[in-house]
Design a protein that fits this description.
The chain is α/β, with parallel strands linked by helices. Strands 5-2-1-9-10-13-14 form a seven-stranded parallel β-sheet, sandwiched between helices. A three-stranded antiparallel β-sheet has the order 7-6-8. A hairpin with a 2-residue loop joins strand 11 and strand 12 (238-239). The protein is globular and about 60 Å long. The chain has one domain: CofD-like domains (Rossmann fold), CATH 3.40.50. The chain contains twelve helices and 14 strands. Helix content is 40%, strand content 17%.
């Protein structure tokens, strides 16, 4: 595949959730905006309040633009007047969106209705906040992650996370629409031109799984000229955030770096973790990213490790 200057990036990060967004922010400090692209999970997307909400791409974008709120999602300093007004009108407001966040997602819905792709819509939104890093939705076609639990049966991912408070056990997982979707041309171009590909410390099944479920994605990663390195989301034997353990148990994988490596088998060339993995090159280091220096330190360590695999 030919790669134009518009699609080429030295470092490509696959991201979903807070861990992937934090690593992407660290990469920005290390390599700069022009040398970085982020491929974000869209399986969590939801249409609500007349808006098109894309939680993972937006989370990544807000982190990269230094506009993430201290609560860990949404835009910094946002207000919630619309949600409060909907509650006063008797609306069941189970999915909270700040006022500026809602406007952002309503503008996305308008652009999609006008014929924009998810990729071009997000690019326009990010340009409005001065973000130069390319954040690429994994696909321009609809994919929805669905989870089955004993209490709720089948439900979409946001309902599982918010209404059901991520209560397991997880009895079923599917990426609805994935087999009829495809990675966008921009995603494939970014992978083909990358010198390093990093899978962020995200929930392997819920956040990276939808990306890998797209036809041709595993092959594109396995066939890339760049080394592919995964960063484990397990730190000190514990999951720092989210229901990763429940999903790993569903997949009958141990909730440790070895289990993560097993899910990525055939795709990754190495792993960054605080524990060893049998049969795989591993950089053992502290992967916690509690502040900006830690994020940059992890990003730099990942890149140095990837370069050692490329030699």
């Amino acid at each position: 595949m030919g790669v134009s200057a518009a699609t080429a990036a030295e470092v490509v990060v696959l991201a979903g959730g807070t861990g992937g967004a934090k690593l992407a922010r660290g990469m920005l400090d290390v390599v700069g905006a022009e040398r970085l692209a982020v491929i974000a999970n869209t399986g969590d997307d939801i249409e609500i309040y007349g808006a098109s909400v894309s939680p993972d791409p937006d989370l990544v974008s807000f982190w990269l633009a230094d506009q993430i709120d201290e609560r860990g999602w949404g835009l910094a300093g946002d207000t919630f007047a619309v949600m409060d007004a909907l509650r006063e009108l008797g609306r069941d407001v189970w999915f909270n969106l700040g006022d500026r966040d809602l406007a952002w997602c309503m503008e996305r819905a308008r652009m999609l209705s006008d014929g924009h792709s998810a990729t071009s819509a997000l690019a326009a939104l990010n340009a409005s906040i001065g973000l130069a890093v390319r954040v690429l939705p994994m696909s321009d076609r609809r994919v929805r992650t669905r989870v089955r639990t004993p209490a709720a049966g089948w439900c979409e991912f946001q309902q599982f996370m918010i209404r059901e408070r991520a209560r397991g056990p997880v009895e079923g997982l599917e990426y609805a629409g994935a087999q009829s979707a495809a990675p966008s041309p921009e995603v494939l171009g970014a992978l083909a031109g990358a010198r390093t590909i990093v899978i962020g410390p995200s929930n392997p099944l819920a956040s990276i799984g939808p990306i890998l479920a797209l036809p041709g994605m595993r092959e594109a990663l396995a066939g890339a000229r760049a080394p592919v390195v995964a960063v484990s989301p397990i730190v000190g034997g514990e999951v720092l955030k989210g229901p990763t353990r429940a999903f790993m148990q569903f997949a009958r994988l141990p909730c440790d770096a070895g289990g993560v490596a097993g899910f990525y088998a055939g795709v990754i060339d190495g792993m960054v973790s605080d524990e060893h993995v049998e049969g795989l090159p591993v950089l053992c280091t502290d992967t916690a990213m509690g502040d900006a220096p830690a994020r940059a330190r992890v990003a730099e360590s990942v890149l140095e490790f990837a370069r050692s695999l490329d030699g």
